[in-house]
Design brief:
The complex is a heterodimer of chains A (175) and B (506). Helices cover 46% and strands 21% of the residues of chain A. Chain A has 175 residues and is an alpha+beta fold. In chain A, the strands form two sheets. A three-stranded antiparallel β-sheet of chain A has the order 1-2-3, with no helix packed on it. The longest helix of chain A is centred in the first third of the chain and has 28 residues, at 27-54. Among the domains of chain B are: 18-103 and 121-172, no CATH class; 364-500, Roll (PH-domain like), CATH 2.30.29.30. Chain B has helices at residues 18-45, 48-75, 113-117, 142-163, 190-198, 202-220, 233-242, 244-271, 311-316, 344-354, 371-396, 407-420, 458-463, 484-500, and strands at residues 77-80, 84-89, 95-100, 104-111, 120-127, 136-141, 186-187, 275-279, 282-287, 292-298, 302-309, 319-325, 336-342, 364-366, 422-425, 429-435, 439-445, 449-456, 465-472, 475-483. In chain B, the strands form four sheets. Chain B has a seven-stranded antiparallel β-sheet with strand order 6-5-4-10-9-8-7, with helices on both faces. Chain B is globular. Chain B starts with 17 loop residues before the first helix and ends in a 6-residue tail after the last helix. Classes of the chains: A alpha+beta (175), B alpha+beta (506). The interface between A and B is large, with 40 and 49 residues.
């Protein structure tokens, strides 16, 4: 077996990631995610409506009221979550790595050093196109769990961020 | 390294003709495994018409498999171009797979019993980051296969030498065809294998057997809709009631005995004649009774080195070691090489190959916070048991208080888990030890870490605790309930080491 001893090695004065200021995503992203949720909720309401129309347990009216009540509570929760969640999202660039934090209830911060980036791409959905937004995805060899996706960047910034990451990765390969 | 300058396959070439036969056998074997339980049911039930259906079915599949295999043979070509191995196949969808030399990682040979009878091998070219099934050649004469491998690895080396100045990391194992000339690092004898089989974790395999049994049962129960169709079963069912307790005990004993026999057989079949050879830049492990397999563990490709043992194995001084290599995104951790049993010295010899003792010294210890115990007890004990309790009350209308007795063993497991968990860190290596009954140790070079993420539940945000996820190219590791302060330190340090490292992680 390996015998381990204890000895101080984590020297003070390492670059501290926690000091970094995270940049917030575009305000447009907040409106987009609210719209996205609204669309989802509308579809949900329609499904609920069809459901109550076909099988209602007591009378039609009480079923409808109950369904709408549950839907309202759920909608409020979802919209509140996405509203306050927006202010918890952010990304930070350093010379040699990129971090993304997210999570209102369950917090997480992921950090990828540029010299471990496999590739990097820019993605746009139809809604994002509408709001002039784009996502930057950063892939590593560590599989889904270790990848990063930074949403809510305006398209110019997203493109320059992608170029920046790619340049950093290339620099690393040349060294 | 002087031989084989010439390209052995400049023109598109077919596989060895025996590929047809091998594909047929594979096909039939696959079908047989799939329909094995249904076959047994048919034998038990034995209705005339069904037998006919079955015969037709068997003939049809036989015919189809022959046609498909023959077509496959004629439509499958491979050759070596200036800079890549090219495989073309497919009847309607022609697929061209091109494997550039510099992406070739390892060239493995596999030989099933059929392969060996026909004196051919299956070639699997492993690349960095794509599915290996795309670059397989099902059957090739041993000599041709050797020529192909040598040529590929040689070209690979040249290519890499062009790009980088230091080529020390990668040297082709040209002698691996006849690698027996070198003395192995160690081998496993028949006695070792039996020991390994007997000391397996039988509780685990027994539970797997029960699960598989249930899965099969639930899949095929509809055939047995009329239970009286099964001869003798009706007679037996009367007997069951009177002897239920002894039947259960007998069942458990039989299951355990069966588990022992199965695991001994399994270890014999998979690891017969296991040899660990040192090759330049790594290790080569070969074993197998029917299917002789050969795997190379490369220093640069290895991501996680882990070893584990259970109380039974500890008693006889046995460990099993796993070398997890970088693999493509969709099947992380599938490319791991297992040495199922070795003693401490052999384990250290293996470890030394990838993690020399010198870089393991002096480190800092981190342990999960004590508060983890209560939280886990709530989530894995109180919560699920309460659900069971309520469910039983709702369905059967009585209070099953004794389910809460299970809290005690659950608590013990959690406490043991927390107390055993260790994360150690030094300038080069990250080391994790964990386990409850089985103990597992893991070693990772810091520079092979891909990314790190810190996760917090609401409770953990209040108490300044963090779950650290460390991602590597061979899977992720989680270190639970580390204090916020320490987690920052660990992350900053690991990231710093990764960013400072000039070494390639693969």
């Amino acid at each position: 077996m390996i015998d381990f001893e204890n000895q101080q090695i984590l020297t003070e004065g390492l670059p501290e990631l926690e000091r970094v200021k995270y940049e917030r995503l575009e305000m447009n992203f907040l409106w987009m995610s609210l719209l996205q949720n609204a669309i989802f909720l509308a579809v949900l309401f329609a499904v609920g409506l069809i459901f109550t129309l076909t099988i209602f347990f007591d009378s039609f009216l009480t079923s409808l009221v109950k369904m709408t009540g549950i839907w309202l509570v759920f909608s409020l929760l979802l919209l509140l979550l996405s509203y306050f969640g927006f202010y918890k999202k952010g990304y930070a660039l350093r010379e040699r790595d990129i971090s993304y934090k997210t999570g209102l209830i369950f917090k997480s911060v992921t950090t990828i050093p540029f010299n471990r980036v496999q590739h990097c791409e820019l993605k746009k959905g139809p809604l994002e196109e509408l709001f002039d937004l784009a996502r930057v995805r950063v892939y590593t060899a560590g599989g889904m769990a270790s990848d990063l996706s930074i949403p809510g960047l305006n398209q110019v910034r997203a493109e320059s961020l992608k170029q920046f990451i790619l340049r950093k990765t290339e620099e690393d390969e040349e060294e | 390294m002087k031989k084989n300058r010439e390209n052995p396959f400049p023109e598109p070439t077919r596989q060895d003709i025996s590929a047809i036969f091998i594909r047929i056998i594979d096909f039939v074997k696959g079908l047989f495994v799939q329909f094995f339980p249904i076959l047994i049911v048919f034998l038990l039930v034995g209705r005339g018409t069904i037998e006919l259906v079955f015969l037709v079915f068997a003939l049809a599949t036989g015919f189809i498999s022959i046609v498909l295999s023959t077509l496959h043979y004629f439509m499958f070509h491979f050759h070596i171009k200036k800079d890549a191995l090219v495989i073309t196949r497919g009847l309607l969808n022609r697929t061209h797979t091109s494997v550039p030399f510099d992406r070739v990682q390892v060239v493995n040979f596999e030989a099933s019993l059929v392969h060996r009878m026909l004196n051919v091998v299956k070639i699997v070219v492993e690349t960095a980051g794509s599915k290996s099934s795309e670059s397989e050649i099902y059957a090739l004469k041993k000599d041709d296969a050797n020529a192909l491998r040598n040529y590929l690895l040689e070209k690979r080396k040249e290519k890499v030498a062009d790009v980088k100045t230091e080529t020390t990391e990668w040297v082709a194992d040209l002698d691996s065809g006849g690698g027996e000339s070198r003395t192995p690092l160690f081998t496993l004898s028949l006695k070792d294998l039996i020991k390994i089989g007997i000391t397996n974790n039988h509780l685990k395999s027994a539970s797997v057997m029960i699960a598989v049994g249930f899965a099969y049962l639930s899949q095929y129960w509809w055939i047995l809709d009329d239970i009286d169709d099964v001869p003798y079963l009706g007679m037996l069912s009367g007997l069951f009631d009177s002897i239920v307790p002894s039947v259960i005990i007998l069942g458990i004993v039989t299951l355990l005995v069966l588990a022992v026999i199965l695991s001994v057989a399994n270890s014999l079949i998979r690891y017969y004649n296991l040899k660990v050879n040192e090759i330049s830049g790594g290790l080569k492990v070969s074993s197998g009774l029917f299917n002789k397999r050969e795997y190379s563990a490369r220093n640069n490709k290895l991501q996680i080195f882990s070893w584990n043992t259970n109380p039974l194995r500890r008693l006889v001084g046995l460990f099993s070691a796993t070398m997890s290599q970088a693999s493509s995104d969709d099947d992380l951790g599938s490319q791991s090489i297992v040495v199922p049993g070795c003693n401490v010295d052999q384990l250290n010899a293996l470890r030394e190959q990838f993690f020399p003792a010198a870089i393991l010294d002096s480190n800092l210890l981190f342990k999960p916070d004590k508060r983890m115990i209560l939280r886990y007890l709530i989530f894995f004990g109180i919560l699920p048991l309460s659900i069971v309790f309520v469910a039983i009350f709702l369905i059967f209308n009585f209070f099953l208080y004794w389910v809460f007795l299970l809290l005690l063993p659950i608590l013990v497991v959690i406490v043991v888990y927390r107390n055993k968990f260790e994360l150690r860190l030094n300038e080069n290596v990250l080391y994790i030890k964990h386990g409850v009954i089985e103990d597992t140790w893991k070693l990772i070079h810091l520079y092979k870490v891909q990314s790190i993420s810190l996760h917090q539940t609401p409770y953990m945000q209040h108490r300044d605790l963090v779950n650290i996820h460390i991602h590597t190219a061979a899977g992720s590791l989680t270190v639970p309930y580390i204090s916020l302060e320490s987690s920052w330190k660990i992350r900053d340090f690991v990231i710093y080491r990764v960013e400072r490292s000039k070494k390639s992680w693969i």
